[in-house]
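In response to the reviewer comment on reproducibility (Comment 2.3), we provide here a single inverse folding case reported in full, input and output, so that an independent group could reproduce the run without further information from us. The C-alpha cells appear first.
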C-alpha cells in the first residue's frame, strides 16, 4: 500500500515515520517506511489458516497476539506457527532447513556443529526449550514413542524407553487418509503433520507416515564381542537391539545393533558398514530370514571362489560338532578348525577362545582357509583400534582425502572419525530429457554430455545453449529462467533482496543452496514476495 506524505518519510494513521523506521499497528500489522516518497509496507503479524481439519481449532493465548492451533486432546503441544515450517520440529524448536536428515548425524558434530546448531537443532537434538501444557506422562505410556513434546524428555528420564519403543512406530498405520483430500493437503501445507499425532493418524498417506520397505543398503545386524547371549538366537528371534540408537549402526562405539527390519524379511541386502576386513556377499532374493546363509547363494567374497570349495559346515545356526555359529569351515576335528569365518557361542569352548569374551569373531586374514587350532594366519575382533581413516575396497584413505572409484563414484573420507567413506555418483544422471536430446559419451571420458537437435522447433538460446519452450533453468545463483512460447526467455533474480528490520539478520545459505534466509525473533512474521518462497 502507499500514501503520499512528506518528502523525507511516511504518514500512517496521522503519525509521521522516518525512512526505514518500523512500527507495529497493535496486533494487526508490522510496518516499515520504505522510502522518502511516503511508501510504506505492512504485513500481517499473525498467520492465516484458510482451512483447518475438524479436530483442530484456533485458540487465544494470554499475552500473545496470535492464536495458536490446537489439534486432538486438550493436552496437545502449544506451538505458535509464525514462521514457515521446515524439516523436523521438537516442542517449539524446529529445523530451518528441510533436508537435515540427508546430511546424517555426522553433520551434527565436529566442524559442522555450529552450522547444525543454527540450521538443524531438532534433528541434531540441540533444542534447549520445550513448552507443554501438562506434565510429562508416566514412563510406561506408549504415547512417549511418537509424542514430539514428550519424547526428548522420555529419552533422558525413562530407563525403559528403548524397550518400550522398540521397532517402527508407524507399522500399524494404514496407508489411507481418513479425512478429505483438501483437509489433509491443508494439514501438510500448514505443517501440522510433524506437530500433532491426531493429524498423522487421520492423514497418514498425505503426511507420509505409512510403512514402506526401505530402499538401498540397510544394516540388519551387528554383533560385538562381549555382547552376551547366543548370536544366532538373537538373529533368529523377533527382538530388536538398540534400534533407536543411531550410533549403534556405526562400527564404533562397540554396541550391538538389530533394527526391526530383519523381523520383516523382504529380500533385503547386507551392508558393508564400517572398516571392512573380509566379506561374503549372499544373494538374498527369494529367501527367508534363516536360509540365505548358504553355499549356493554366495555371489562374491574377499576369499575368492569359496562357493565351489567343499565345506564341512556353512550356516548361521550352531554347528553341533564345534558349537560355532555364522561359520564357513572346511574341516573340523575337536578344536582344530580350518575355515574362513566363525563366531563363538555359549556352546563352543576351545583353547583359542581363552581370554576372549563371547561372542568372538574369527576370520582368515589370507585369501584361503586357515587353521585356528595352529594359532596362525587368523584373527579375532579383539582388540580393534579406532579407525584413523577410511578403508575402501581394501585401500586405506586418510581423513579428508578425496579419490575416484573409476568412472563410478567420487569419494571422500570425512573428518568425523567414523571410518566410513562417503561416495556420490561421479556423473550426473539425466532424467526426463526431451525426445530430441540424448547423452553421448566420448572415447576416454567418464561422463557423457547431452546433445539436442531442435531443428524446426521454437527454442530459446541462452549463453550458447538451446532450450525448448517450457524449459526452466538456473544461471548459477544469480537468475532463474524460463523459455517462452515466442522463443524469448524470461529471467528473474533467483534470491530475494531483503530489507529486514534491525532485529533480524540474514543467515548464510545452507550447504548446496544459493539464497540467504532471514533469521528473526519468533514474533516477527517474514513473508516472501509473490513468485518467491523458501529455497527447495
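Designed residues, in position order:
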Amino acid at each position: 500500500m502507499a500514501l503520499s506524505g512528506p518528502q523525507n518519510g511516511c504518514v500512517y494513521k496521522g503519525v509521521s515515520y522516518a525512512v526505514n523506521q518500523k512500527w507495529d499497528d497493535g496486533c494487526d500489522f508490522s510496518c516499515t517506511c520504505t522510502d522518502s516518497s511516503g511508501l510504506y509496507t505492512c504485513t500481517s503479524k499473525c498467520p492465516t489458516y484458510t482451512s483447518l481439519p475438524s479436530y483442530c481449532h484456533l485458540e487465544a493465548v494470554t499475552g500473545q497476539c496470535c492464536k495458536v492451533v490446537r489439534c486432538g486432546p486438550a493436552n496437545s503441544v502449544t506451538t505458535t506457527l509464525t514462521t514457515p515450517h521446515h524439516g523436523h520440529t521438537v516442542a517449539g524448536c524446529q529445523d530451518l532447513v528441510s533436508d537435515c536428515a540427508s546430511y546424517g548425524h555426522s553433520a551434527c558434530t565436529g566442524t559442522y556443529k555450529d552450522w547444525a546448531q543454527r540450521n538443524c537443532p531438532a534433528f541434531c537434538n540441540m533444542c534447549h526449550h520445550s513448552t507443554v501444557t501438562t506434565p510429562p506422562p508416566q514412563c510406561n505410556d506408549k504415547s512417549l514413542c511418537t509424542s514430539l513434546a514428550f519424547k526428548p524428555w522420555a529419552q533422558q528420564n525413562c530407563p525403559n524407553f528403548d524397550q518400550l519403543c522398540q521397532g517402527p512406530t508407524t507399522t500399524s498405520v494404514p496407508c489411507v487418509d481418513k479425512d478429505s483430500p483438501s483437509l489433509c493437503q491443508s494439514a501438510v501445507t500448514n505443517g501440522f503433520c510433524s506437530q500433532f499425532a491426531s493429524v498423522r493418524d487421520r492423514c497418514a498417506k498425505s503426511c507420509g507416515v505409512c510403512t514402506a520397505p526401505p530402499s538401498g543398503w540397510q544394516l540388519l545386524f551387528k554383533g560385538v564381542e562381549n555382547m552376551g547371549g547366543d548370536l544366532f538366537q538373537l538373529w533368529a528371534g523377533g527382538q530388536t537391539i538398540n534400534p533407536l540408537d543411531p550410533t549403534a549402526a556405526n562400527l564404533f562405539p562397540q554396541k550391538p545393533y538389530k533394527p526391526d527390519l530383519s523381523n520383516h524379511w523382504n529380500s533385503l541386502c547386507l551392508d558393508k558398514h564400517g572398516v571392512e576386513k573380509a566379506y561374503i556377499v549372499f544373494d538374498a532374493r527369494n529367501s527367508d530370514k534363516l536360509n540365505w546363509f548358504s553355499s549356493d547363494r554366495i555371489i562374491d567374497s574377499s576369499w575368492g571362489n569359496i562357493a565351489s570349495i567343499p565345506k564341512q559346515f556353512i550356516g548361521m545356526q550352531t554347528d553341533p560338532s564345534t558349537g560355532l555359529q555364522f561359520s564357513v569351515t572346511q574341516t573340523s576335528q575337536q578344536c582344530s578348525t580350518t575355515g574362513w569365518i566363525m563366531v563363538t557361542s555359549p556352546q563352543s569352548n576351545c583353547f583359542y577362545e581363552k581370554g576372549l569374551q563371547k561372542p568372538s569373531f574369527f576370520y582368515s586374514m589370507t585369501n584361503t582357509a586357515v587353521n585356528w587350532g595352529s594359532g596362525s594366519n587368523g584373527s579375532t575382533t579383539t582388540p580393534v583400534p579406532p579407525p584413523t581413516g577410511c578403508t575402501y575396497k581394501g585401500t586405506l584413505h586418510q581423513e579428508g582425502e578425496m579419490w575416484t572409484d573409476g568412472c563410478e563414484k567420487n569419494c571422500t573420507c570425512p573428518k568425523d572419525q567414523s571410518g566410513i567413506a562417503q561416495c556420490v555418483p561421479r556423473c550426473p544422471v539425466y532424467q526426463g530429457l526431451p525426445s530430441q536430446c540424448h547423452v553421448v559419451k566420448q572415447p576416454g571420458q567418464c561422463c557423457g554430455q547431452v546433445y539436442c537437435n531442435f531443428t524446426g522447433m521454437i527454442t530459446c538460446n541462452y549463453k550458447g545453449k538451446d532450450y525448448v519452450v517450457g524449459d526452466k533453468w538456473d544461471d548459477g545463483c544469480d537468475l532463474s529462467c524460463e523459455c517462452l512460447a515466442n522463443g524469448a526467455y524470461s529471467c528473474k533474480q533467483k534470491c530475494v533482496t531483503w530489507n529486514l528490520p534491525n532485529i533480524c539478520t540474514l543467515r548464510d545459505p545452507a550447504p548446496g543452496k544459493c539464497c540467504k534466509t532471514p533469521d528473526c525473533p519468533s514474533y516477527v512474521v517474514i513473508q516472501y514476495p509473490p513468485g518467491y518462497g523458501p529455497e527447495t
